[in-house]
Amino acid sequence: MIRKKENNKNIDLKTSIQHLAGVGPKKATVLQNVGVTNLQELLYYFPRRYLDRSTITPIAKLKVDDNATIVGKIISQNYVKTRKRGYYQVLVGDDSGHLKCVWFHGVSYMNKAFKNGDMVAMSGKVEFFNGYQFIHPDYDSLEKDEYSTLNTARIIPLYPSTADLKKKGLDSRGFRRLFGKIIGENEILATEILPVEILKKFSLPNINEAIIQIHFPDSMEKLKEAQKRFKFEELFFLQMMLCVKGKSIKLNKKRFIYDSAGELIKKIYEKLPFELTDAQKRVVHEIWDDMKSDRVMNRLLQGDVGSGKTIVAFLCSSIAISHGFQTALMAPTEILAEQHYRNLKKISEPVGIKVSLLIGGQKAKVRQEILKEIESGKAELVVGTHALIQESVVFNKLSLVIIDEQHRFGVIQRNEVIKKGLHPDVLVMTATPIPRTMSMTLYGDMDVSVLDQVPARRGKIITKVVDKIKLPAVYDYTKKQLKEGGQAYIVYPLIQESEKMDLQAAIQAYEKLSSTVFKDFNLALLHGAMKSEEKDKIMHDFRSGTIDILVSTTVIEVGVDNPNASIMIIENSERFGLTQLHQLRGRIGRGERDSVCVLVERKKTNTSIRRLNVIKSTINGFDISEEDLKLRGPGEFYSTRQHGFPKMKIADLIADRELMIEAREEAQNILKLDPHLRRDKNKIIRSILLENYSEYMEFVNVL
Ligand code: ADP
Ligand code: MG
After folding, report:
1. 554 and 469 housed in the same domain
2. Residue 276, ligand 1, Cβ within 6 A
3. Which of 283, 432, 561, 585 gets mutated to test ligand 1 (max ligand atoms within 8 A of its CB)?
4. In this structure, what CATH number is given to the domain that contains residue 504?
């Protein structure tokens, strides 16, 4: 609620923005487009940055390459015609000098943006071209009085805006006017939504104080406190949502109880051609502990490429199977599903487990047969792709769902398989090693097991970054290895299967290589657009050694296993992501011989050099993903929407990771004492979750 200072008329925070003085119907519409519908949401429309004396550089003190902000007056502006392309030029001056600001794009828009004499703030990178200049600076108009008070301790908030908002007068200055009216003329009376103990413990300002300070900071110190409060708040509710979600899944009672681990697991174990690593043994126990409890398992198994996740999953599935239940194993590609099917069949048949494969490309007759097996329960371990989530797939008694390479699936697909069972146990596996703070958020609702050990490698992996002109030498080396019985992968970038040009390039390269350099060898081409039977045959021939070189797109990135392949040449390696390169390289180094991974560089940039160096210097997936995260930022690293949680407004999942850990601890503590958030003092948390987070909590039933 906010209270008018003079006449004590109260306005509810839920009041629609169009009823606020200062917001007409036009402004209301554009605000709604950016998700602001009521007063409360408006107050949470935070500045993107702030301007104050300490952040402004006098024009005379600018240095080339600095990122700087200047504040001054528009002196002149004009369109400059050149032979190549024209540009819009604005001259800004302060007491110390003049600076050119240049726009090559949006000229028709820019020539309406300022009037001569306007006060502006411009931010950008200082460049030198006939004098100092900014190209496409970030700009904000200031009021005359704002300008004159900047020399005092005044801090001016700069608000995010869009072209639409600007058209209706809501540029940064427009927002300041609006907030000046709302906060300046009314007394804010928002209800506190964080527990008082937390505010005290972390010295956070209360909600009303924080709202004022984030829009009208008295000092940098007060501003920091307000920002910290809202970051904490955001992270706290995010973590609360994740913990509640995790709890609620686990509160689901099973319809059955396993009384023992069953006979099968021992039999399989005895027949294994290798000893399990300690990590594998530990993780099998962690999973078994979950499986035998009367609550549903919701566990993430994280393990680097080659750490042996599949066998762990299989051993656990045998527990379910020996009690007469079914297990579904879903993989992201047909190649991987087929490989799992083939490998698991080898170890299943001797102990009498019936494995079935269900993928998209099967003939109707085969498919009908398999669907019948699944429905009758004859198929005990069902391996498949997302074909498993189709409506026609009906399980008889599905008690365990395993999702391989989980990051390849969206939440929806994950939930769809789960729905095929009656509160089945869920094990999701990923080879993408996720930095702890990220996994806490992405998988905050799950228990985590880590395979932190890779079975002893017999051969080494050597990684080389090679310029394209060295390719002949690489090919010579490859030929030598092939003659000694080795096999190789040559990988072309085809990040999205729909990119026709990339596919064309891969096909041409394949044709050229097989008719020239490698004409004495057997080559095959593999890409995602091929029919599944064809892919299957090629993989089979590659594994059996009939094919020497597999020329492929990134379809082999996940999981493909041929221990005899010891060479991998990755073309245009600078176009791949770090995690992707790591996954690809994981296809070699699986057998006796030493392996070589050649990263062919075609276009060098500073970042590509840095990135390829990371791959060269380590084979540890965790280190690589930390670097990837640093180089790309979390937004690109993981799409938050895919993982089913809201976009952050003020908190940064990486920069604020410490705060996130604290927020998570607080959330857990509260839930420990009050799992359903029914106590009076927690009711507000409950109502915020239900109100703002319900779309992210599909299965939640504890609130
Ligand atoms: P990932 O964790 O990448 O999915 P896989 O499950 O495909 O790894 O295992 C990689 C290879 O290592 C497979 O050929 C598998 O048979 C083998 N493997 C698994 N566990 C062990 C072990 N404890 N010792 C030796 N080899 C193992
Ligand atoms: Mg795997």
Report:
1. yes
2. yes
3. 561
4. 3.40.50.300
